[in-house]
Amino acid sequence: MNGMIKTLLLSFMVITACKEPAAPTVANGIFPKGEAGPAANFTGKAWNTGLVAADSTYSTLVGNVYFEPGARSNWHIHPAGQILIITDGVGYHQLEGQPRQTIRKGDVVKCPPNILHWHGASADTGMQQMYIVPNVEKGIVDWKEPVTDSVYNNKN
Ligand code: MN
Fold first, then answer.
1. Is the pLDDT of residue 89 over 90?
2. Cβ contact 91:103 at 8 Å
3. What are phi and psi of 89, to 5 degrees?
4. Residue 21 Cα, ligand 1 centroid: separation in angstroms?
5. Torsions phi, psi of 19, nearest 5?
6. Superfamily of domain 26-153
7. Exposed e or buried b for every residue in 129-139, given b needs 16+ CB within 10 A?
8. Measured CA distances, 57 to 109, 112, 132, 135, 136 (Å)
9. What CA–CA distance (Å, rounded) separates 89 from 125?
10. Could you report the per-residue pLDDT of 90-139, keeping only the tens digit for each?
11. CA–CA distance from 139 to each of 14, 23, 66, 110, 111 (Å)?
12. Cα–Cα distance measured from residue 153 to residue 156, given in angstroms and rounded to the nearest whole number
């Protein structure tokens, strides 16, 4: 009887261990966390840290943003476009008039010049992205209206 109880207990422990995968972790420690983006331009918390300041040699702006779950940018354009390199987590990216896309660690996203778009975390998992804005003499970003819950949740 004792042996059976031990076997049952062990089985339970093994099953329990297998059914509880580690919570998804989103690296937020590669770069400094930075500053929270202004509420006027973001829904939820998005933390930005600059990595390369644009200057006359590079004319390129590089930085890192960590979006907490549910957080996203407003709709916006980049006059010279933008490249996003997703370094952790799961998020969404949407160009105006096109379906929302799910983006994950390792994805590279191009936002063409002057195309209205938004990006952010998924509802359940944060998303970390490195952004590269080239040719900043053309402009960096032009902020528009917030992304509604309906658009964010892909229900339109
Ligand atoms: Mn953008």
1. yes
2. yes
3. 85, -165
4. 33
5. -85, -5
6. Jelly Rolls (2.60.120.10)
7. bbbbbbbbeee
8. 25, 23, 15, 11, 11
9. 6
10. 999 999 999 999 999 999 999 999 999 999 999 999 999 999 999 999 99
11. 57, 40, 23, 17, 14
12. 8
The alpha carbon of 12 and the centre of ligand 1 are apart by a number of angstroms equal to 48
**Coil, strand or helix: which one is 42?**
strand
Centroid of ligand 1 to alpha carbon of 80 (angstroms): 11
From ligand 1's centre to the CA of 141, what distance in Å?
Answer: 8
Which two tokens mark 51?
């990595």
The total of other beta-carbon atoms located within 10 Å of residue 1's CB is 5
**pTM for this prediction:** 0.81
Task: Give the C-alpha separation, 80 to 88, whole Å.
Answer: 25
